Structure formats: structure tokens, C-alpha cells
Amino acid sequence: HGNMAFAGKYEFEGDENYDDFVTKIGLSSDKIEMGRNCKIVTEVVQNGNDFTWTQHFPGGRTTTNTFTIGKEADMETMGGKKFKATVKMEDGKIVADFPNYRHTAEICGGKLVEISAASGVVYKRTSKRIA
Predict the structure, then answer these.
(1) Where do the Cytosolic fatty-acid binding proteins domain residues begin and end (predicted)?
(2) What CATH number did the domain enclosing 80 receive?
(3) Sheet hosting strand 62-68, strand order edge to edge
(4) How many structural domains compose the chain?
């Protein structure tokens, strides 16, 4: 694919294995409730290998991760923990190793498909393009 076009705005459409996954990575029950079927809007700005990846949560909370493919960056997990990761591009997918899970993102049929895997539990989130 060469340069995958990630840029755009995507709205949460559905997920699989949410409860198993967030329990496995140790999210607190209030965060688990907050995130369940949450209409997260993911906004991706891409400039070559530079990305700004923002998640807008209902109620106005946002999380932004800014990174460059192949360079170490300061990132934040689902639970709000800060860490450093080097984000890679493999077969048109963005791949990042979070402290206790591996996260991939790809554009598939115009949808943003994100997969997080932790000790055998695979969490899949699909978002549809809205802009």
C-alpha cells in the first residue's frame, strides 16, 4: 500500500471482547463502564510519517498521542498511563507495543480497525469514517 491514508475522523461502530480485555489490562471498573459502547470519535492527522491521533470521548475528554513512525514517542494508554513506545508500520498497519498489550491499527474497507492483544485476549474495535 505504501502510504496508507489514515487521515480522517472515525466514529465507534462496534467492538469484540471489550470486557475480557479491559479486565486483563487492569482497568478500574468505573473506567470500564465509561468505555463500554462508548461513541469514541478518533481523529487522525497524518503528514507523511508524522501522526496526531486524538480520541474524543463523550463529555469532552480527549486523549492525544503524537508520534512519528520509527521514532520513540511519549504515549498514553487507555487507562491514562504515560509510557514511551516506538511506533512501527508493518504491512500498512500501525503497530505499537503498549506496556501490557500490542496495538495495531489499519484502514480496512474505509473503516478504522484497531486490534489490541494482551495475554491471549484480542480486543477489536471498528470505527466508521465520518469525515
Answers:
(1) 8-25
(2) 2.40.128.20
(3) 62-68, 50-56, 41-47, 8-16, 121-129, 111-118, 102-108, 93-97, 88-90
(4) 1
